[in-house]
Design a protein that fits this description.
The complex is a heterodimer of chains A (about 180) and B (about 375). By secondary structure, chain A is α/β, with parallel strands linked by helices. Chain A has a domain at about 5-100 and about 145-165. Chain A is about 30% helix and about 15% strand. Chain A has helices at about 10-25, 45-50, 70-80, 95-105, 120-125, 130-135; strands at about 5-10, 30-35, 55-60, 85-90. Chain A has a 4-stranded parallel beta sheet, sandwiched between helices. In chain A, strand 1 (about 5-10), helix 1 (about 10-25) and strand 2 form a beta-alpha-beta unit. The two termini of chain A are about 30 Å apart. Chain B is of the alpha+beta class. Chain B has 2 domains: about 1-170 and about 315-360, no CATH class; about 170-300, 3-Layer(aba) Sandwich (Rossmann fold), CATH 3.40.50. Chain B is built from 11 helices and 17 strands. Chain B has helices at about 60-75, 80, 140-150, 160-165, 185-190, 190-205, 245-260, 280-290, 335-340, 345-350, 365; strands at about 1-10, 15-20, 35, 40-45, 50-55, 90-100, 105-110, 125-135, 170-175, 205-210, 220-225, 225-230, 235, 265-270, 295-300, 315-325, 330-335. In chain B, strands 9-14-15-5-16-17 form a 6-stranded mixed beta sheet, sandwiched between helices. Chain B has a 5-stranded antiparallel beta sheet with strand order 2-1-6-7-8. Chain B has a 4-stranded antiparallel beta sheet with strand order 10-11-12-13, with helices on one face. In chain B, strand 10 and strand 11 (about 220-225) form a beta hairpin. In chain B, helix 7 (about 245-260) packs parallel to helix 8 (about 280-290). The radius of gyration of chain B is 22 Å and the shape is globular. The interface of A and B includes residues 15, 47 and 50 of A.
Chain lengths: ~180, ~375
Amino acid sequence: MQHYYQYFVEGETEAKMVQVLKTDFRCICAGKVKIHNVVEKPLSRGSFTSLRFNTTAILIFDTDTTDATLLNENITMLNSQPMIKRVLCIPQVQNLEQELMRSCDIHRIKELLSSKADKDFKTDFCKCNGLRGALLKHHFDFSQFWVSTPSGAFSGIPNNISQITILTDRSGKGRSR
Amino acid sequence: MLVMRLKLDNVFAFNDFEILLSYPKKIVGSTIDREFLSGRTNFRYKKLIILMGANASGKTTLGKAFMAIFNSIKNKNLIPVIKNINDPTKKASFTIEFVATTKNLYRVEAGISPPGTPDSYEEKDMEVSVKSVPISLADSYEMCAAKLDKLAVDNVPFHKALETIENFGGLFTYPSIEEKIPTFQELDKNGLLEILDSVLSVLDPSIQGIIKARDIKNSYVIKLGNHEVIIQDGNVLNGEILSSGTRSGIGIASMLAAIMAKQNGFYYCDEKFSYIHSDIEREVLAKMVEKLRDDEQLFFTTHNTDLLDMSFPKHSYCFLKKEQIGDTCTIRCINADDFLKRNTDSLKRAVENDLFSTAPDVSRIASL
């Protein structure tokens, strides 16, 4: 049976990151991407009905807030849907910028795309046409990306990145975790 | 007639766009017969290009760009391209490589600078170079392209340069329920009636038959119960009784007839199947490809993912991806065979899971 993947991501930057990881680096399972902040917004009935049967839902979210109630409700809701095979969580500790700083050779997020200031990073990231090249230039190490365990309100949420990781990238370089 | 490469910059919505239509290696047991230039087995070209992509990703516009360039070359002036320059304050350019009727690879490069006075382009604003090399028995496209790279350009006026190119043409059809068939008489002589009868009776089993009209020029009569529907030059004169699918079948049948009559050699079939059942689209496409002869090429645009598991080689599938980054719009062509190398890789599975990142972003609808 055909297996589908559906990513629900925090924002545009995460959507772009997933695109680069699945299409350019080929290091995560390919799947369609919807922007939906599962920590702050409940998933509506319409969010499920357009999904295909046998879909794995992958939730990518920031953990820089103090309330995970809505996230847990969304996970419960997803798990109860017949078309959902399983729900996987990828908590970002604490957000995408910090994940990138841990997995690239940069100290400030503005260094990744030579942004004027840290606050310009998101805009530059979304506008960037050669993100794969920019990440490689800063020695992006996928084995250090999306691997941290969250704390605080999100401490009980598992990190399921290993379940969507593809072991080799396009260059054939090992990506085992 | 076949196109090997097209580059566009600042023409229509294409900026720094390139599509390559050769493929790297012979496919053993390919379902597409003789997918190389006749008599030149190493000169591999894509005989079938199934173009897919989200809405407004450039599928129709690519056909229009081909048509504008073909007309520019045929008419020896660049007006058809100039009319479609996206930003007239910037330089526009195109490069096309193609094989016309003889075994020569042509490369036409054109650059159009912004005019001194808005909207009044002069000859000095246009630079055109035409190069060609004969394709030898053992040549591949890549070898010929390398020979073209080394050739010097003759410094002659652009219309003189374009005069050196052989005649060629293409057949372009765009989405519409019905359309005039300009070559009705020619197609009629080449079996259009039989093809129309077969296609329309599949689309609507209640059609009892199609006959040639005795008293009306260039016309057929569709017999449907107590009704008679007249088609003249492809236009349905009294077609309220026909479904949208059946009406669009007329254009599809004429495209198929043109291919079977070897009318052009280059065919651009753009989303003619929006009203048509998926099984019929698959069958018609299979027949079109089967009927393509040597040195012909078919572009086929569609949204139908059911075509992804047809047994065509993976190099037949291309995906257009449009991205708006700030003020700049970019359209890229993504080749399925760049991603899926193994025979066992499922193209349909890859597309349904959006491996190429070409699916539309539906988040804003979902968030309503």
